[in-house]
Write a structure and sequence with these properties.
homodimer, 329 residues, alpha/beta, 434 Repressor (Amino-terminal Domain), Rossmann fold, 4-stranded parallel beta sheet, 16% strand, DNA-binding, LacI family transcriptional regulator (chains A, B), Peripla_BP_I (chains A, B)
DNA sequence: CTGTTAGCGCTTTCAG
DNA sequence: CTGAAAGCGCTAACAG
């Protein structure tokens, strides 16, 4: 790997001058410029980003912290982020927490060390320590999916999306609607969606049996188990079931089919996420499209803006959702 | 951001000494070490990776070049790679070509500039220029999914997997088996799978009508179109259809259902990829599991080995595949 | 056991 | 228009 000095020597100029043509800064006479260009061309020289970063404090790298790398949500999000970022010459440094909250903290630190120009954090959870860590981070940072006051956020409208789903059931004449959620420590998916469900039910004067509300852990298997519990323990069997993710819904469908229920005749069902499988289960699953790719793009735009203008006031963007009504209701 | 010098001053020692405790190299007396530790603790100091990289020429970053970021294959692959890499303290710098071959070249360059310790390239295609670029890259590089002589490869056994699928059809009594492929410039998916199909047919003395072989472009839509062409243009309608990817197969299924064909009674069908939707289409799709996550792991291991031992001879790993026989045949 | 010195490759004043 | 010099933050001989 050649260095700027060698290029300078070969072109009989100083490093400074080479640097100038490299960065299009300051004046360089036409022939000197051409001479240098030629040498650069011939040697295939490219300046070291590290040396550059060391001086300029800029890296053109954005750290992206994900809870789980191989989910549809994550990959759509990253696709959206990359779409905007690559256009602006930034690259993504991945950080996968694998749902380990400790790692969120670690990675924020690590990304600081690597001097990334910005961080996009997809949080599943907000706790005191995380907020502290975020607050003492001087790098522009934006959080997707959970609300953190001090920084910019891109949020899904979990509360209203949940209400919309329940409202749909009610329109279709359902009154006994049960719910498969996740732990409420996940504010967005766990708490807000549940609140939406409860509020919508309450507003319509519908009662909710305790056993109608079950919890899973984001996978198909736990959706199956939750559904089983609802069916086995409820004195009054519901006619509709709202699962907070598509995977949970698919698990529920699996259980229902196994027990001979007809969907949607015996039991209507809906999820959230618009995952690809939601189209292919039988019957196709009613769900909510959160447009993760759009979220990724929005986050990336916000971040770049914040990097380039260097301004601080946090912005909050709440994204639209689309209710996808399909044959499962 | 504090620097090593400030820490040194605060602890009344030289930078060298601080560096020593940071890297656990050389001797440092117990109390000096503790004094330094304390200062580091209090200030929350972390050494700059850039300055470090500039000296050591190591970055603990691996560049991963992907053809498309938001596919199941990619995300599984990345999950596998990350699994191994993170364990060894490496991070992933993402490079998404979006199927633009030009970008593969660009990114190899860019990753060099960023001095990544190694590169994992998921290639869809091998052309002269790419091989050249790869050869003049001094950074350890491994290619997944396509064979490139000069470097280590992790390969799927496309040829035998294809034969296995066709062989399955033949066992089930099919003789008129048609094929939906992709362009053969993609050696692995396009060429080898087709060759496997042809060879297996030939070996069993089965003939193939020209119209039985159609091409798509990796999406569901084009699978639909290809299937349509086969049905509409063949004088002798086949009884089985082998699609080189699950998505193509799903497209084909959509067409067949639309036209009232019963699967597998009127038409058997199989794909490759073991994508999640393959389980949920109706009927569940027979497919081949390539275990992308294992491929990612294998690639990461190979790469780390090559980085740490600094040895050159390229290794070739061909992964196993598993035929997943489901109701579509 | 600890410090001095040099230098990684680049950009950026400041003088010509 | 061009160059000299300083320095970004760190590590690695080499001397003590």
């Amino acid at each position: 790997m050649a260095t700027i000095k060698e290029i300078a020597d070969m072109a009989n100029v100083s490093r400074t001058t080479v640097s100038r043509v490299l960065n299009d800064s300051g004046y360089v006479s036409k022939d000197v410029r051409q001479r240098i260009m030629k040498v650069i061309e011939e040697t295939g020289y490219v300046p070291s980003e590290h040396a550059k970063s060391l001086r300029t404090k800029k890296t053109k790298v954005i750290g992206v912290i994900l809870p789980k790398i191989s989910t549809e949500t994550s990959s759509r999000l990253v696709a959206g982020i990359d779409d905007i970022l690559s256009e602006k010459g930034y690259q993504i440094l991945l950080a996968n927490t694998n749902l380990d909250q400790e790692k969120e903290l670690e990675f924020i630190k690590l990304l600081k060390v690597r001097q990334v120009d910005g961080i996009i954090l997809t949080a599943t959870n907000v706790n005191e320590r995380l907020v502290q860590q975020i607050n003492k981070t001087d790098i522009p940072l934006i959080v997707i999916g959970q609300e953190v006051d001090s920084v910019s956020n891109v949020l899904y409208d979990d509360y209203h999306a949940a209400r919309a789903v329940v409202s749909l059931f009610i329109q279709k004449g359902h009154e006994a609607i049960s719910f498969i959620g996740v732990d409420e420590s996940d504010v967005a998916v766990g708490h807000l969606r549940k609140k939406g469900y409860i509020d919508e039910m309450t507003q319509h004067g519908l009662t909710v049996e305790d056993t109608w509300i079950q919890k899973g852990i984001f996978d198909i298997e736990s959706g199956y188990e939750a559904m089983k519990k609802i069916i086995e323990t409820s004195t009054h069997t519901p006619t509709a079931i709202f699962a907070v993710t598509d995977r949970l819904a698919v698990g529920a469908i699996n259980y229902l089919k196994e027990k001979g229920y007809q969907i949607p005749e015996d039991m209507a069902i809906a999820g959230i996420g618009a995952s690809e499988i939601s189209q292919y289960v039988n019957p196709p699953l009613t769900t909510v499209d959160y447009q993760n790719e759009a979220a990724g793009k929005a986050a990336a735009k916000l971040l770049i803006e914040s990097i380039e203008t260097n301004k601080k006031e946090p912005k909050k963007i709440t994204l639209d959702y689309r209710l996808l009504v399909r044959d499962s209701v």
